[in-house]
Amino acid sequence: MTIVKLIKWKWQQLISSLGCLLLILACNSFYPSTKQDAKFLKIATDPTFIPFEIQTASGKLEGFDIDLMNAIAQVAEFKVDFENLPFDGMISALQAKRVDAAISGITITPQRLKTIAFSRPYFKAGLAIAVRQDNQNIRDFNSLQGKKIAVQIGSTGADFVKTIPNAKISTFNSGPEFFQDLLNGNVDAVVSDAFATLYAIKNGKLKGIKVVADLLTEEYYGIATPKDSPHLETINKALAALLSNGTYKQIYQKWFDAEPPQLPES
Ligand code: ARG
């Protein structure tokens, strides 16, 4: 082979490799979402909140919120990558866009709406007072005055107890911890989400504890996202579909054995 022929041959090789490369790139942009690169959304959750999000001994996430989020992902055709975060760190993780969304029985409040966004309400909730079974003197909001009360850090329960005159407040990271403190006799009462507390008592998870006043407040849980999230509309559309096609009702009945109440649209 002469030197001229060799150069020509190499040149042809280069052109045909470039051609192949272009063809591959073009094919990829026509068919972008194969199974491998289907969209993953990172969803934060604090799985210490039975029956909304809990983690089994083998590490599996379960609960009403987990089922709902998976159903949303199925309708909206994205994949869920759950990430466990302490409840108290969720809002800052959303603000910093370290996660795409959070589902964790998070109450929609005007205060939170200043820094993050919420989906349409997906669960009607409220706070409850829990005491030890032998307690006779705490019956309602007024009887909490001057009492020792445990709450979850950063929760609506923590905000609520700030309005009780002379209450001595202890804050904890998770449900199991503040209920343990109540059982140990360190505090007189716990103020936390009614459905979670009642569910735990009914399922034998909180022996020695009773609820004396439930639904002290009217709250709605929403799926939280960063403020300008491109996923909020997708999540809302999927939620609307699940509410009208019976899937929401099915999930509600699975966990609460009851008909779901009517939810406001926003
Ligand atoms: N609903 C309450 C709030 O938004 C408490 C939620 C606690 N959730 C949890 N996964 N620990 O403040």
UniProtKB/TrEMBL annotation:
Keyword annotations of the record: Signal
Protein name, UniProt field: Glutamine ABC transporter substrate-binding protein
Pfam families found in the cross-reference section: SBP_bac_3 (PF00497)
PANTHER family: ARGININE-BINDING EXTRACELLULAR PROTEIN ARTP, MEMBRANE-BOUND LYTIC MUREIN TRANSGLYCOSYLASE F
A molecular function (GO) term: ligand-gated monoatomic ion channel activity
Chief site of localization: other
InterPro entries, alphabetized: Iontro_rcpt_C, SBP_3_CS, Solute-binding_3/MltF_N
Organism: Nostoc linckia z8
Alphabetized CDD domains for the sequence: PBP2_Arg_Lys_His (cd13624)
